[in-house]
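Hi R.,

Here's the chain you asked about this morning:
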Amino acid sequence: MQTERAEVSLREGESHKLSLVDNFGSGVACGEVEIVYRGNELKLLFSVKDGDIISFGTRYNEPLWKGDTAELFLSLGRDTRYLELEVNPDGVLYAAVVENGGDGMFELEFLSDPPFEAETERTAAGYRSRWTIGLDKLIDFGFDIACVRFNAFVQDYTREGLKLYAAFPTMLNTFHVPRAFGRLVLKDK
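And the predicted structure, written out as tokens:
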């Protein structure tokens, strides 16, 4: 895992692409996520290569992690409290607030309404998912635009087992590692 936090800095209207690489550091990528900061919104485009899609869940907040997912963890005022947002290849959403106590222990508070929207489609290479997150919707959860930490992930189930990919690899068999989150700096023009 990196010892210094990576940083992505975006001005209004700018975008930045991050490769989603093997979570254990091999460098193998399964796609990318593009992040755009525009009009008090974060827009994300996950482009995922997946030759054998395994999608689980058909309703909001079902355990989508039992199948392939694109995910974003976004801090809520401190590193140990963050949003966990997921979309499966069929466009089903999942949203929870995570209180991470460390040592693999965390509590989830499932949100009654998703704080984001997503349009997802399968492609010849896998799937693509476009997300819109209204930052003003996150204020009640403790979101602080001056102190944003994040990580983006893809979970891919294959015949060989589970493969994990991350923008900032955790080097563990979990994504719930806040010290691996990168910093996201959002600036007005």
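The chain has a mean pLDDT of 93.

Let me know if you need anything else.
M.
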